[in-house]
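Sequence and structure are no longer studied apart. As an example, we show below a sequence and the tokens encoding its fold:
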Amino acid sequence: MSVVLKRIYDEEKPLGGHRVLIDRVWPRGISKEDANLDEWMKDIAPSSSLRKWFAHDPDKFESFKEAYQKEIKESDAMSKLDELKNIARNNRVVLLYGAKDKVHNHAVVLKEMIEK
């Protein structure tokens, strides 16, 4: 199983694999051509209220992680997670996100859930 995290703003050359944008909002300044996506799964992103509460505060990360996992498991996003797991069995999945913090973000949590 191969799941790679990539900050969409840091990509010099698109990484090969099944490319999925996992943010609820389209990243500013990135054209659809430059993003080179296979799909945009905005429904798998954290809810707006959870994202605003978290505000990428490292001190809140563990609580955010638990709340985000619960959101996925209790919503239609669970089917998207299963879809990503199935793709990752045979192909590299590239999870693209816009957050500046590469350690404390929803992509890290999602990658962990896919790999379980």
